[in-house]
User: Fold Putative membrane protein from Hymenobacter daecheongensis DSM 21074.
Amino acid sequence: MPFSDPTQDLPVPPVAEANQQRRLRVAQGILLLFHGTGFLGLTFSQNPGFYLQFVPLNLLLTAALLLAFQPDRRGMFVTFCVVVMAVGFFVEVVGIRTGRLFGVYEYGATLGVKWLGVPLIIGLNWLLLTYMTGILARYLPAPGFVRALAAAVLMVGMDLCIEPVAVHFDFWSWQFNRIPLQNFKGWFAIALILQVYFNRTDFVKRNPLAPFVYLLQLLFFFGLGWLIR
Assistant:
């Protein structure tokens, strides 16, 4: 297969594979518990604010569990994480100050502590989405740039599901209460740049938890967005 990826097929000893499967099931169970509790609380609770205060914690927990399944967390992988978080954070700073990247918007209080008007945790969110979708695109038997395009589409697809929930629960708000098409164009452009960088950075690109986390978050935000309409 001309476009196979050797990082997907590294041999794993049987005992190590069994231990990894146990760890994987535990991680999936924890993520299901947190997302399920949040979903029910935000949908049916008389006090959704109680659950909203745990949004940053949920993001940190998801990141910790996801990155725990990254085979090699040294060297270039650390560099990749720092660069993506920094780029993600500062494009948001430029975005809210100029309105030229994504449209005119501002952040609310839900995502926690801000610096320069942007929640500090936003950089981590960009990292998780870039990393997850980049890993998913590695399964495609295609050249690197096609994988980058596919991963960028997956990132925009997630943003489509997040936007109605984010606006409703004061993650951020848009001018005239309308999500502009410019937002999705900007997201795609930045996502594509980050995915090209992902493909060109030399670290093991394999994570058995990534497909589960992406699907869980997609269903979480899609379901919430449908119920709060």
Q: What stands out?
A: The beta strands are 105-107, 114-115, 118-119, 172-174. The helical segments are 14-44, 48-52, 55-68, 76-98, 122-137, 144-168, 181-200, 210-227. The chain has a mean pLDDT of 92. The chain has eight helices and four strands.
